[in-house]
Automatic annotation (TrEMBL):
InterPro entries: GP_PDE_dom (IPR030395), PLC-like_Pdiesterase_TIM-brl (IPR017946). This is Glycerophosphoryl diester phosphodiesterase. It comes from Agrobacterium albertimagni AOL15. Pfam families: GDPD (PF03009). PROSITE patterns: GP_PDE. The lineage of its organism: Bacteria, Pseudomonadati, Pseudomonadota, Alphaproteobacteria, Hyphomicrobiales. GO terms for biological process: lipid metabolic process. Residues 9-243 form the GP-PDE domain. GO terms for molecular function: phosphoric diester hydrolase activity.
Length: 243
């Protein structure tokens, strides 16, 4: 198993340390700079451009973040890099731009946002190519079994984890099937804790982080039933958190 214990050490800023998209928007270089200054690990999301460049962006479409219609995957990286996020000066960054900014100063937890196995062909390879030679703590994760499997087939040198949610036995069965790929950690929905799946992982020493913690109750749930939190909307250095 890859060394992943570091993922327990620092609160993870969800899509960077943004201010709930008031002035500093999610998944922007501004949000990542703010996380670095605060000393938080960074969670971010990766979409693929039409020319197979990994872009830091959560949604599959451009409406919420760029106030435009259309799919991310229908645009080239050059086109996407010119689009303003939330009307701010921040543009959609590439994964390369984010890595050049962070430079190993804080850990990165990178989520791959997939569509389906056919449309995601080459996604994993594109991400790993950009990451090659990066000197810093990185973990990769996804909800998508086909992407997790592709990461393992590609012999990903970084820890790989399952992003997950659910409280039903069929959820847990699917999660266990994914973990059987040889995954290193799980990021689980905080509202769905505690549960047998997560408890079983922790008994085996597999790290569990939560998403997305927004108040003191969720933070308490995290540290009772998991190892670390992915948070937004408050400063975890201050206690109590603002509900």
């Amino acid at each position: 198993m890859s060394h992943i214990d570091w993922i327990k050490d620092l609160p993870v800023a969800h899509r960077g340390y943004h201010d709930m998209n008031r002035e500093i928007w999610e998944n922007t270089l501004s949000a990542f700079s703010r996380a670095i200054e605060a000393g938080f690990a960074i969670e971010c999301d990766i979409q693929l451009s039409s020319d197979s460049v990994p872009m830091v962006f959560h949604d599959h479409d451009l409406q919420r973040l760029c106030n435009m219609t259309g799919e991310v995957r229908e645009r080239t990286a050059g086109e996407l890099r010119m689009l303003s996020i939330g009307g701010t000066k921040d543009k959609i960054p590439t994964l390369r731009q984010m890595l050049d900014l962070v430079k190993g100063q804080v850990p990165l937890v990178i989520e791959l946002k997939g569509l389906d196995a056919e449309q995601d062909d080459g996604f994993v390879e594109a991400v790993l190519e950009v990451l090659e030679g990066y000197e810093g703590k990185v973990a990769l994760m996804s909800f998508d079994y086909h992407l997790l499997r592709a990461l393992k087939i590609a012999e990903c040198p970084w820890p790989v984890g399952l992003t997950a949610e659910g409280v039903k036995p069929e959820n847990f069965a699917a999660h266990r099937e994914a973990m059987d790929l040889g995954l290193d950690f799980t990021s689980y929905c905080v509202a769905h804790l505690p549960n047998d799946f997560v408890s079983g992982l922790r008994e085996k020493g597999t790290p569990v982080i939560t998403w997305t913690v927004r108040d003191e109750i969720m933070r308490a749930q995290t540290y009772k039933y998991a190892d670390q939190m992915t948070f937004e909307g408050f400063d975890p250095r201050q206690s109590p958190a603002i509900a």
